[in-house]
Amino acid sequence: MSYVTPRSTNLRPFAALALGALVFAGGVALARAWLPEWLAGELPSRQVFVNRYRELAQQAGIRLASGEPRVAFAGRDENLEKLDEHVINRLGPNRAAAVGAGLLIEVKQTAALPKAGARARELGIRFLPSRDPVVLRWADQAEIFEDAVKKNPVPSAAEQARFSQLLLRPGERFGPASKGVAGAKTGEVTVGEENKGAAFKDPDQLLGVLYPVVGSDPPQHVVVTALPGGALRVTRKPSDVGDKDGDKGFSIAGLLLQALPLICGGVAVIVLFFLLLGRRRIGFVNGGLLAAVVFAAAAVPTLFAHPSLLGVLELIGALFLALWALLVWSTSESYLRSLQPGLTLGLDALRTGRLGPRGGRALLYGVAGGAFLAGLRLAVLALASHLPHAWPKNGSFRLPLFGIQTPFNDGVLLAASVALAMGLAVRFLPARWVPWAAAVGAGLAFPFAACEPPWLQAGAGLVAGGVLVFLCLQAGLAAALAAGLSTYLLQAAAFSALHPSWLPFSFASAAGIPAVLLILGFVGLSRPPQAEIERIKPPAFMKRLEEERRLKYEMDLLARMQLGLLPSKLPEVPGWEIAARSLLATEAGGDLYDFFKDEEGRLWIAAGDVAGHGYSCSIAQAMTSAALASLIAAAKTPAEILGGVDRVIRRASQRNFTSLALVRLDPRTGEALMSNAGHPFPLLLLGATGAVEEIDLPGLPLGQGPPRQYGDLRFEIPAGSSLVFCSDGLFEAADARENQYGYEHPRELLHNLGDRSAAAILEALFADWRRHLGAEEHQDDTTVVVVKRAATAAS
Question: Which has the minimum average pLDDT: 201-215, 470-484, 540-554, 731-745?
Fold first, then answer.
């Protein structure tokens, strides 16, 4: 992947910003035309809603506490009774806004009923912009939670009816039970279908009732939910007079396109987190900073809105979301970095004050991409609200804009999902498929624009995933993060700009962050490239990864060097078969074998092992091979050659010792002369009888200890017989129970292989050796050389 943009393309971010602004403006225009929460014009002042609130409280006979009520926007997602989206979709934007699917204003204050000993509660009422109430709550959230587990009496039917009357509008009344709704009646109060199946011994203690509203347009009803202890919730909702089957129900497409990718993404994050944590390949610096921002953005407005113990308890949810943001970002960033060693983040440069042109372009591209995605999201949700058989699952934004869940949280998770998808694609797919697979994975795993039908949500997600992956490839992960944050912040800023007197803090925060990113981007462009040429200090785990990669590269290099020292081609000797194989262990070792011919046509066979692993071992191996090549001559014996090799190794290194068996073979007669410096004894397989003999000639290894003299042993390889050299890696290899292959296994196996070719003998030895190891890996280089004389001597 490339993260460097040529200097000649500095104008591209400006073109991207213009395109993003155009798409964003189009999305806002569609939202204002078709999304219920965007339809409200200029709102009355807060005092208008306070006066209406006090009027309703007085009408219900409720005594308000001293002081001013708290007034704030409230969102659809926080409604005490969810609205059926397929019903809202049939109404059209304006009528949907008129039944509570759009903007709501909540007023709440501590209050009490006028009767003696009445418990003080919180009266919360949510109003439409027209000042009509749609939701009433008589108790605070803490009380609802506390009383729900008790068996105290619920409010009487009379109290329920009195509160329900507050939601009626001029010209409306409660009618008889709706058709098909059964239950116990108390006057005109009927147990609703939503509470069907509940058994009540006392009609005055009903858990839930439904009031059809006669004269409402569109048809509506009021649902009353009473809780033990006197808490009460009353919600006005549109009635479903159509057939639900065409719009709702279980969908395989919905499961495959919406739920399944989201679940898989969450599981992938958790699994990768623990894998990276176990391998110490995860960094928390950037993730921790982002999590702190997410938590602060949630904590400050939450405590401001609820300066009480309830507000402190709500921060538990904010803390959980911040921890999840930390987990997802740190996992995704670390995984992608572990796969892309050269990856640098503009976030690193920004954090360390080294922002330059590359980082500046990343921020500008990010804001441009965020504007594009914000417009896209608003357009998709607006279309879902306008098209038949389609609807947004939730509002286009949360209210309050800054609460437990904030645009910061959504933006961080969106960018992190792209990083995770790219990391998985890089790890498991060819390079040409990475962008496409990452776009699909990120687009489906993150619910970018939650709506029905599933294909519309999936299509919007795929476009968003493609844009973010493109930004990552062009400008790095910092661009994706800036885009994710700008996507949700710009939507919030546009909405706040419609109601500046209501949302001054939200507007300043939502518009200010993208503005700061733009300013930093322009500052970065104006700085010289040297500002970010200096190496930014990588996370600690990246230093370990670099060291591991360096060591792996060196080990691979040593392994290639070692294999390069072995003969590339085995010699062809008339009347003889030669087979050889060397298996390297996990680290470069020092097994060697080689073949030489002298002036008289005799074949010299060398098989050895340099002790240890690593560079020094490979150097000693190379010196041994070079010494053999220069010292072997027809007039010398193997013992004399070993003495010369010993002097070479001692002069060059005092750290390694080498075992080496050297045989001088006359191919015409089968006569052999051998000297051995501590190498495992060769095995002579007699073809006529199948007997296996050790060529027993002890000696000390080369290179260490006092100077030594080596002796020669003369023997003969009869026709049809084989001489087998094995390194100690064969004999000492152990299975899972630590049982070594040993010296008897190969002897017993060779006993039955006298009639086999040299290659067949070698294969049989390795096959039996692997069966003994089972699932275990060999820990040392393993080399086998087989030299077999034909059963009939060559002419």
Answer: 201-215
